[in-house]
Amino acid sequence: MHTYDCVIVGSGPAGLGCAFELLASNPSASILLLDQEKVSSGGLRNDCKMNFTWPIGFPIEYWEHDLSVEYLERVEAFLNPTIIPQTNLSTYQKRAKRIGVDLLMIRQSHLGTDGGLRLIKRLIEDLSKSGVEIALEEAFVGVDRQNKRCITSKREVGYDQLVVAPGRHGFDFLRKFMRDNDIDYTDNSIDVGVRVETRIEHYPIVKDYYDPKFIFPERTRTFCTNSGAAHVVQERYTAANGQHYYSVNGHAWSNEREPNGLVNFAILRSVEFTHPLASGQDYAENLAFLAMLTGGGHPIMQRIGDFRLGKRTTTEGLNGDLNDFVPSLPSCTPGDISLAMPAKFLRSIWKALKQLDTIVPGILHPGTILYYPEIKLYANKPVFMDGYFQASADIYLIGDGAGTSRGITGAWASGMRAADGIRRKKGW
Predict the structure, then answer these.
(1) Cis omega before residue 373 (within 30°)?
(2) How much of the chain is in helix, strand and coil states, percent to nearest 5?
(3) Among candidates 29, 337, 318, 46, which has minimal Cα distance to 163?
């Protein structure tokens, strides 16, 4: 049985950031990078939008300002992104301020899904050339902590240090891993919302600011804007009970693709539960199942015009004269979102959309589409032993699934931070 200096589970930005940082410390380090998928996965594949301003992507309970800035500089130095210029925003800022809304100014880069795929290919090739063993389609099953062995779907390997970075899709896997290994954690916060899709003429701010970050009252915000060659997708998740459900998301291709004239973005409401609710994740999964039930196994979409009238959207109604585009995710079921989304979320989101329409008039055009559900799974909050995300002896938990980040740059930084802890421990 081979023993590695470090086994990294998950090849998303957190795992990649950790691997590259360990190699920078010790080029001869023996590293195994595992992923159950056929290709390297994670946020770099999906639109590849990166934010380089604190606190976007950096949960403040783990990342104070000065520390975040230090790691952001290191991430930027490694990835060398092209920052998108922002112009003509003073009018939007004034409108937002007048009604109690914040428009955050974030340094951003956008590669698009195709650009992200090229970046991943290059990064994986660089790791492989540097001696890292890349093991795709090999699932991490569990760990024997006493003997420091990892059990995978294909073998057993030894480790000196273990880094687990499963990302959002691995949220439930990580929760089970923590329970099995007596790692204390909390799971009481969720982000639930809708994805909005409309013509770019109805949301022209994206011509000046690619992914505008609006913060509304009641812990509601815009998230992950896509324009140009933009489209909405549905992503499959596996719940704790083994059942599957879909959550919607947004993607865009790079500027090399012909624009389709559409824009989409999420608007999310955050809630933190207290006693007696045991799991925000279980609550979120039940919301998703209710949406699947309401939508006949698919997410739901509803026209703004129908929502305002309190009636469901129908297939026939999507062909009226006020519908000036074809929805980019036609597999969604036309219906009534209010039958599946709790009022607390729906009220906050509708208030925010009305405020947004005051700042950027046109977003509430009758033909604008709302897709539901969009649920973000990063509510795991492990109890860490140190500031390097060590949760048990020689075991580190990082990335979105572990709640240490909310996006590509934060995930990469959390990988670097874990690597810094390993480097100190091993004297590299």
Answers:
(1) yes
(2) 35, 30, 40
(3) 29
The answer to whether the CB of 370 falls within 8 A of the CB of 196 is yes
Q: What is the pLDDT of residues 32-70, one digit of tens each?
A: 999 998 877 677 887 899 999 999 999 999 999 999 999
Give the chain's end-to-end CA distance (angstroms, integer): 24
Q: ∠ at Cα 406 (236, 96), nearest 5°?
A: 110
- Listed in sequence order, the residues at least 6 apart from 118 whose beta carbon sits closer than 8 Å to its beta carbon are 111
Please report where in the chains the tokens 């996006």 appear, as a residue. 407
Provide φ and ψ at 39, rounded to 5°: -130, 160
- Sheet strands (E) in 229-261: 230-238, 244-252
Q: What is the pTM of this model?
A: 0.93
Which residue is listed with tokens 């500089």? 73
Residue range 238-265, pLDDT digits in tens: 887 889 999 999 999 998 999 999 999 9
Domain ranges of the chain: 3-84+110-186+380-426, 189-376
Diameter of the chain measured on Cα atoms: 68
Radius of gyration (C-alpha) of the chain in whole angstroms = 22
CATH hierarchy code of domain 3-84+110-186+380-426: 3.50.50.60
Residue 168 backbone dihedrals phi, psi, to 5 degrees: -65, -40
